[in-house]
């Protein structure tokens, strides 16, 4: 069985992320979407909120599970008995950084592979940061994120 892990901040999950999750779930036997707990970032959504949002938008994908982790991804991979890391790429600039990450992960554990997937062209501009910026200024994000995420964003940015 090929168990893949798709790690990220997912603050919040976007249609670009969902594209990678859906396509990954058709390729791999099991996909774990792993929300990174990063003490150096100041996320809009808590880890628990991000996990719940991802669970909601992936509930119809039986081979997808959602979890969170801290520390080294390689250690998490070993805990989950997973052998493949999924990384979504939007542009060449993403590849340069992700190649470095794949290289260090390979050095830490040569049995774990990194699988790069190009995001659908219609999401190549999309990032969680862009979504948060649009939502912060009450712009429409309905074509960028699932409805449950759009509602959660509205809840975060309600002007009093």
TrEMBL record:
UniProt keywords, alphabetically: ATP-binding, Coenzyme A biosynthesis, Cytoplasm, Magnesium, Nucleotide-binding, Nucleotidyltransferase, Transferase
Record-annotated site: Transition state stabilizer: 17
Names of required cofactors: Mg(2+)
Reactions listed under catalytic activity: (R)-4'-phosphopantetheine + ATP + H(+) = 3'-dephospho-CoA + diphosphate
Compartments where located: Cytoplasm
InterPro entries: Cyt_trans-like (IPR004821), PPAT (IPR001980), Rossmann-like_a/b/a_fold (IPR014729)
GO cellular component, as recorded: cytoplasm
Pathway info: Cofactor biosynthesis; coenzyme A biosynthesis; CoA from (R)-pantothenate: step 4/5
The Cytidyltransferase-like domain, residue ranges: 5-133
Molecular function GO terms recorded: ATP binding; pantetheine-phosphate adenylyltransferase activity
Residues that coordinate or bind ATP: 9-10, 17, 88-90, 98, 123-129
EC number annotated for this UniProt entry: 2.7.7.3
Organism superkingdom: Bacteria
Annotated signal peptide: none
GO biological process, any: coenzyme A biosynthetic process
HAMAP family linked: PPAT_bact
Protein role: Reversibly transfers an adenylyl group from ATP to 4'-phosphopantetheine, yielding dephospho-CoA (dPCoA) and pyrophosphate.
UniProt-recorded name of the protein: Phosphopantetheine adenylyltransferase
Provenance organism: Vulcanibacillus modesticaldus
């Amino acid at each position: 069985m090929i168990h893949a892990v798709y790690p990220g901040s997912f603050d919040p999950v976007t249609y670009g992320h969902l594209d990678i999750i859906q396509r990954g779930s058709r390729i791999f036997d099991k996909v774990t979407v792993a929300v990174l707990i990063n003490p150096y970032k100041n996320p809009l959504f808590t880890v628990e909120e991000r996990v719940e949002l991802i669970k909601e938008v992936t509930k119809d994908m039986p081979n997808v599970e959602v979890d969170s982790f801290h520390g080294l991804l390689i250690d998490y991979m070993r805990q989950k008995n997973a052998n493949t890391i999924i990384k979504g790429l939007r542009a060449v600039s993403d590849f340069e950084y992700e190649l470095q990450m794949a290289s260090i992960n390979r050095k830490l554990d040569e049995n774990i592979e990194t699988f790069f997937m190009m995001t659908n062209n219609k999401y190549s501009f999309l990032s969680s940061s862009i979504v948060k910026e649009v939502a912060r200024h009450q712009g429409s994000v309905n074509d960028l994120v699932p409805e449950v995420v759009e509602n959660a964003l509205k809840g975060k940015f309600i002007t009093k």
